[in-house]
Amino acid sequence: MSLKGPIISVEDDEDDQYLIGETLKNLGVPNEVRFFPNGEAALQYLETTTEQPFLILCDINMPLMNGLELRQRILANQHLAQKAIPFIFLTTAATPQIIRTAYDATVQGFYKKATDYASMQHQLKLIIDYWQHCMHPTNPV
């Protein structure tokens, strides 16, 4: 995790992409936000970039590669796993079984996606504030 690195948003819904982007901008988050429409596109980026992302916000239900599959592929890739990028699900797919599966894959958070701007702003502020103040193995003390 790099406090200055990009925020990776893996989200196939363009309206949700817009809402996430605008909310982060209105919160004054200086990080660039990179949007990917599915896990496959995000994984290609993560495997080839030299950047250290700040965190990953990920939907679950997406075409080609869903969010749970993306998380498993990141964990299976030693280089990506060592980057220890905070991985947070932000999704409407919040059944008990999916939540358990997500935490079995050692995600750092699971949020049921807000349906209005004020709630989305609250969720994202909590997430960003937490990770901006959290110690991380890739940041020197």
From TrEMBL:
The modification 4-aspartylphosphate is found at residue 59. Keywords: Phosphoprotein. GO terms for biological process: phosphorelay signal transduction system. SMART domains: REC. It comes from the Bacteria. InterPro entries: CheY-like_superfamily, Sig_transdc_resp-reg_receiver, TCS_response_regulator. It holds the Pfam family Response_reg. Residues 6-128 form the Response regulatory domain. SUPFAM superfamilies: CheY-like. PROSITE patterns: RESPONSE_REGULATORY. This is Response regulator. The lineage of its organism: Bacteria, Pseudomonadati, Bacteroidota, Cytophagia, Cytophagales.
